[in-house]
Write a structure and sequence with these properties.
Length: 469
């Protein structure tokens, strides 16, 4: 993001001035300036009813609505789509189709909850925008008084969670690219039997160079090229999937209940792009176009769910129990269209890698930025930090090269917490003192989401770890 906002609460010994209704105040750093704002729930909400955060945003390089849609589409439409057939293998044809639409609705709704909560907090705090971690921290600081002391801890925990999640996801990207390149090279150069880890090391230098792009706006061409490669790959995939389609009766409609955690984890990994949502929304020229109908969020997720369901359904229908962790490994590598497909997929993932690591590197950099003096030192430090991060993702990929099970592990542990549990908690805290609606439907709904997320966390991670070892 071009503008970065850090949020913290400091205890006041006594109210200062007539506008401070409570004992707490918050300091929001906007660029180099600091604005002290009073914190109290009900009084502040009444005072700030007329504050519109969108009117006060000043983004140096704003994204258009189309640019935001491209970014969000690319963050959700990644390598996960190629793992959908193996997800259907764990749920069955009909079970996978129903489950995909349910998980798609769940992901969309949870993102909607989180962004709406961020807007509500911005209105109360009179701030133009907040990132994901700042939103979570501010939710506690503006929530019930017993929870306000946990605001800073929550913000730090979310930052750490985002960095770990992004780190693991980009590690999966490295595994995917190396596996595809290995398959191609073994076909093009018969007798070649290099380990996939060698291809990971070969990818490291191009990824380090590519990772030096620092502005989200300048990543739009990357996302555009990645989407072009992915759409072309999607068309070629359909060509293979629709040839000699087996009878649907040859595949089970539903799978064992014990396999559902792996299905849920894989689909969640495929669809979830929670780390990119807030930076994209915060840098939009017209952020009011993000939510609503049709809106950037609903439009993007509608496209994603349909594409994922198609690839998952027909991929599993075609290959059945022989479905690989990524469907491209099932395609005949000796055929030219399949080779083009694999190259396009590698390029698509390569261009997506930058967008995924953007959030993590921004979080890391803002923690050390103020400690480095001088423009040259700052630039050199940025380059080194980005190179070290890329090297780390290559190292984790080399350590766990099993694509199918690492996808399930990342989805169950990281994305179930950030993508489902976190929005439920934040919305509950934000509206704790302002009511949960008729029959407390918000509270009941959020308890259900929290239980679902914890179930996915425990069962999915246990099943993935068992399969890994």
């Amino acid at each position: 993001m071009d503008k970065q906002y850090s949020y913290s609460a400091v205890a006041m010994s006594e109210p200062k001035g007539p506008t401070v209704p409570g004992r707490f105040s918050s300091t929001a750093k906007l660029g180099s300036s600091e604005v002290s704002i009073p914190v109290d729930s009900k009084t502040l909400l009444t005072q700030n009813d007329d504050y519109n955060p969108f009117e006060h945003r000043n983004v140096e390089h704003p994204n258009s609505t189309v640019g935001a849609l491209i970014h969000l589409l690319k963050s959700s439409l990644g390598t996960g789509i190629l793992a959908m057939p193996v997800a259907f293998r764990n749920a069955g044809l009909l079970g996978g189709a129903i489950g995909t639409f349910c998980v798609g609705f769940l992901c969309t709704y949870c993102v909607h909850m989180l962004v709406s909560a961020s807007h509500e907090i911005c209105k109360r705090a009179r701030l133009p925008s907040l990132g994901l971690a700042e939103t979570c921290g501010a939710a506690f600081e503006y929530g019930p008084k017993p929870l306000r002391r946990f605001g800073t801890a929550v913000r730090i925990a979310v930052d750490i969670g985002l960095v770990i999640t992004t780190f693991m996801v980009t590690g999966v990207y490295v595994v995917f690219m190396s596996n595809s390149l290995q398959q191609l090279m073994e076909h093009w150069v018969p007798g070649t039997a290099y380990n996939a880890r060698l291809y990971m090391v070969m990818l490291m230098l191009p990824l380090m160079i590519s990772s030096q792009v620092r502005e989200l706006k300048h990543l739009v061409p990357y996302s555009f090229l990645a989407n072009i490669c992915m759409v072309t790959s999607f068309a070629i995939s359909l060509y293979y999937l629709f040839m000699d389609i087996p009878d649907p009766s040859s595949r089970p409609l539903f799978s064992s209940i014990g396999n559902l955690p792996l299905f849920f984890s894989t689909v969640l990994f495929a669809m979830e792009g929670i780390g990119v949502v807030m930076p994209v929304e915060n840098t939009m020229k017209k952020p009011q176009h993000f939510l609503g109908c049709p809106g950037v969020l609903n439009g993007t997720m509608g496209i994603v769910v349909v594409l994922y369901a198609m690839i998952g359904f027909f991929g599993y229908l075609k290959y059945g129990d022989a479905t690989e962790g990524t469907i491209t490994l099932n395609f005949p590598v000796h055929e030219i269209p399949a080779q083009i497909l694999k190259l396009l997929i590698v390029l698509s993932v390569f261009f997506t890698y930058n967008l995924q690591l953007y959030v993590a590197l921004e979080i890391i950099w803002k923690k050390v930025d103020h400690r480095i003096v001088g423009r040259t030192k700052r630039n050199v430090s940025q380059v080194i930090a980005r190179c070290v991060y890329v090297a780390g993702t290559v190292a984790i990929a080399a350590a766990v090269p099993n694509l199918e099970h690492i996808i399930g592990l990342v989805g169950s542990i990281c994305l179930s917490i950030l993508g489902v549990l976190l929005p439920a908690i934040i919305e509950t805290v934000v509206y704790w003192e302002h009511g949960f609606g008729c029959l407390k439907w918000r509270l009941i709904k959020n308890i259900f989401l929290a239980v679902l997320a914890l179930f996915a966390l425990v069962s999915g991670s246990m099943e993935s770890i068992r399969a890994l070892f």
